[in-house]
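Inverse folding, one chain.
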């Protein structure tokens, strides 16, 4: 990658962040700084080759710059979706909620136990509430 291309990518990144920031103007942050959070993000893109992972970092960085109570280390779950749309109709849908399904997890070093539990489907209504 040449320096010129890198500079162009940085400019586009900043422009993207500025668009997100402008959309958030006047929005109040309803969560406490201690809340665990989850994001649901739907990116409407017009290019099938668009990388979905490139959407997340600028959103989190921008939220951190806009909302003083927000820190991306409090994000415990992110759900991403990519939807195709016509050129010129690109969009982002972002929903932020408290992550209520946070369960305390013990570190498991038992390989056999880990192999047995990885393939088990857990129904959330059967788990104890904390």
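Residues assigned per position:
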């Amino acid at each position: 990658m040449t320096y010129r291309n890198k500079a162009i990518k940085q400019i586009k990144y900043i422009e993207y962040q500025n668009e997100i920031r402008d959309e958030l103007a006047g929005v109040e942050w309803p969560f406490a700084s201690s809340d665990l959070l989850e994001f649901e993000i739907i990116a409407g893109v017009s290019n099938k080759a668009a990388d979905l992972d490139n959407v997340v970092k600028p959103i989190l960085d921008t939220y951190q710059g806009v909302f003083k109570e927000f820190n991306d280390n409090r994000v415990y779950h992110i759900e991403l979706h990519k939807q195709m749309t016509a050129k010129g109709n690109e969009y982002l849908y972002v929903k932020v909620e408290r992550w209520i399904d946070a369960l305390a997890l013990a570190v498991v070093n038992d390989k056999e136990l880990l192999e047995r539990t990885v393939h088990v489907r857990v129904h959330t209504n059967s788990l104890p509430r904390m």
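The domain at 3-102 is CATH 3.30.1330.70 (60s Ribosomal Protein L30; Chain: A;). The longest helix spans residues 3-24.
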